[in-house]
Structures are given as C-alpha cells and as structure tokens.
UniProtKB/TrEMBL annotation:
Predominant location: membrane
Record-given protein name: Ger(X)C family spore germination protein
Organism: Paenibacillus chitinolyticus
Location(s), subcellular: Membrane
GO biological process, one term: spore germination
Annotated GO CC locations: membrane
NCBIfam families assigned to the protein according to its UniProt record, in alphabetical order: spore_ger_x_C
Keywords: Germination, Lipoprotein, Membrane, Palmitate, Signal
Residue ranges constituting the Spore germination protein N-terminal domain according to the UniProt record: 24-196
Length: 398
C-alpha cells in the first residue's frame, strides 16, 4: 500500500517542481515600477513610469550622486502600445507589481477613466491596492519627475503623505483602484479622487540640489478632491469643501477646529473621534436626507481668555465647532450640486430604502439631487481640557 501511494505521489511532486518556476524572472531583468502617470498628448496616450534604482535606495550601496529613481516616457495610440514601446528605451522589462501610485492627467480624466483603468483590472501583473490621483494644473508625467526630500522614492512619499493627510487633517481621500471602480459602478454614488499639484518650476523639481535645500523651491502638494460623474472629471473641491465631504462620508479620523470664543479670540480643538450616519426618509412623497454626526474633541490650544471651568463657555465652543462642521457640509453639498454629481451616495441611500421610488426617479436623479432637502443633527462634545483647566494667559491678563 505504501509503495502504491508513493508511486502515485511521486509524479505529482515532480510536476510541482517542474512547473513551479514557469514565471520566474531574475531581478536584474526587471525594472521595478512604483509610479505610473497617464496623459493625453496630441490625441495619443503618454505614459510615464517611475522606476526604482535599488542600488541608490539602499543606504550602504548608494553612490550618493545618482538619482534613486529613473523616469521613462513613451507615447502610443493605446496604453498598452505606449507601455510596450518603453522597451526601446529601457534595458529592462517594466514590472508594475510593486506599483504605489497612479497619477492621471486632467485631460485624460475629463475624457473618461474607463479605458485606462480597464488594463489595470485585466493585467495580472498590476496590483489593485495602489492609490489613484488626479494631477491638477500639470501633466501627470511632471508630477512623477519631482524628487522628494524625505523619502528617496517619490511615489512612496506621495502614498505616505496622502495617508497621513487623510488621517490627521482630512482634506483628501485615499482611493485605491478597487474602491474607485466600485464607486464608479455603484448605484446612486459617484467618485472622488485626491488632487495633487506641482508647486514651483517643474524643471527645478528634477534637480538633486532642489531637495538639498532646507526649503525646496519645487515640491508636490495635495489640493483637495476632484469630482467625477461616472468615469469623467467634472471639477474640483477646495480644502474646506473636501473636509465637508469627508465628514458626510464618515471618513474623518482626526483633524482640528477653530472655535470662536465668547468675547473674541479662538480656541483650537483636536478631534479624537467622529461618527456620521446618513439616512433617507420620505416626506410628502419626496426623499429627505438626514445627516447625523457625533464628534468628541479635546482642547488643544487657547487663543482667548475664558474660564473653561464654566459649563456655558464649553457649550459655546461646542456650538461653534458644530456650526463650522455644518457649514463645511453645506459648502461641500453646494459644490457637488453645482457640478451635478452625487458623490455622497444620497441616491444609494434612497435606492436601498425606497427601491420603487428610485426606479422611477433614477434617470432624473441629478435634478432631484440638486433640490434634495438636507437635515442636520450635529453634536460636539468636549471631553478633555488638557493638563490645565485654564490657560496661563488668563493670569497675564490680571
């Protein structure tokens, strides 16, 4: 029996060994792509690949003079054609399995993302957890040519900066390929992507001495959100409107608020947790959206003279912050209505709760969305005052 079992297993094991390395590739044959930019130039697709030089990234092996990344560019009638034509310039095959950032040029975004995104969902070498961005005011390729001071790999710094900004300040949103496609195809909800801009002369950003300065002349910066309908870019949201979007979609991890003090001056509050619920209900046969938010904050900075031991002063600050959050939400909704895109998913809430109404209203939802009544229920609670009930500034005023 044992001999018979061994006889059966031996061919299977041999098959695994023989076929296990069918796709094996040597590292010295590959160019590790960490960033991809896509632009439309003269009716052609232009792709830009940011490629890592492993020898320059490793501190012990770095020559100190060469750039840690190399950028390759090529044009073609299709994305795949442009990508393959890069082989005429690169000694190695492009390997995008470590892709961190996809930067989409504004012209491509306005025409539509679907054709570009199709290859990223179809090609097994492309991972799906990279972030997608829209380049505002500059070609996507120029974004990927800018060297960054903290992280030697600019694509990594773009990725990390976006995550940090979302968690600590909340004017942007981390959107991966999977999330983007899900938002584009979901009933009653449209998409947003974070916008990135190039500050300073583009040519200067490619020079090593730019990041050797204490304050680089050229750098990259996030600038709110870009608003889509289906797969097409419609316009932009500023920082305040983008924060309002994140409040409504329950995507606030931490941020700060300036609260007006009674008698003048401001207090700065540090948000420690926030929860938003959005519900749809019918009123007189028409949908109404209710946005409920509960926020907990700590006193972070005092720039006014008030007694924090008095409950009425705490309530004054809480109301000031609640009013600020409501204003940001209203501004964000107003901007989305101007653009005609339900990025908040109000339509999705109506579809889920009132499918019969949605069936007859979905074709005109943009018009309905522009007039949709919104009700707000925002409550802010100050939990901690810090190590001192009152600022020493109070004593200076005595």
């Amino acid at each position: 029996m044992l001999k018979r079992l061994t006889g059966l297993l031996a061919p299977l094991l041999a098959l695994c060994i023989v076929t296990g390395c069918w796709s094996k590739r040597e590292m010295n044959e590959l160019a590790i792509v960490v960033g991809i930019g896509v632009d439309k130039i003269d009716s052609q697709i232009k792709v830009t690949f940011q490629v890592v030089d492993p020898g320059e990234v490793a501190p012990k092996k770095s020559s100190g003079g060469r750039s840690p990344i190399t950028v390759y560019e090529s044009k073609g009638d299709t994305y795949l054609e442009a990508m393959r034509k890069i082989t005429t310039k690169s000694p190695r095959q492009m390997y995008p399995s470590h892709l961190r950032v996809l930067v989409i040029g504004e012209s491509i975004a306005r025409e539509g993302l679907s054709e570009i995104l199709d290859i990223f969902t179809r090609d097994w070498e492309h991972r799906s957890d990279f972030i997608a961005l829209v380049s505002k005011g500059s070609p996507a390729g120029e974004i990927l040519k800018v060297l960054t001071p903290i992280d030697k790999i600019p694509a990594n710094e773009l990725y990390s900066s976006l995550e940090t900004a979302e968690k600590k300040w909340a004017p942007v949103s981390v959107v991966t390929l999977d999330k983007l496609i899900n938002n584009m195809t979901e009933t009653g909800k449209e998409s947003v992507l974070s916008a990135v801009i190039l500050k300073g002369p583009a040519d200067k950003g490619q020079e090593r001495n730019n990041i050797d300065q204490i304050k680089p002349e050229t750098y990259l910066q996030y600038a709110g959100l870009s608003v889509f309908k289906k797969d097409k870019l419609l316009g932009w949201m500023n920082e305040s409107e983008s924060k309002g979007y994140n409040y409504i979609t329950d995507n606030i991890h931490s941020t700060v608020h300036k609260a007006a003090c009674p008698g003048g001056g401001i207090a700065v509050l540090d948000l420690i947790r926030s929860k938003t619920n959005v519900k749809a209900r019918m009123k007189n046969g028409k949908p109404v959206i209710l946005i409920s938010l509960r926020s907990e904050e700590n006193i972070g900075e005092m720039r006014c003279v008030i007694d924090l031991r008095k409950r009425e002063n705490i309530r004054y600050l809480e109301k000031s912050v609640a009013d600020d959050i409501r204003r940001r939400m209203q501004d964000s909704i107003g901007r989305a209505r101007d653009l005609g895109s339900d990025i908040f998913g109000f339509g999705k809430k109506v579809y889920q709760k009132y499918p019969a109404y949605w069936k007859q209203a979905k074709e005109e939802w943009t018009s309905v969305f522009r007039e949709l009544p919104i009700e707000y229920d925002i409550q802010v609670n100050i939990r901690q005052l810090g190590r001192s009930n009152n600022s020493f500034i109070n004593r200076l005023e005595d």
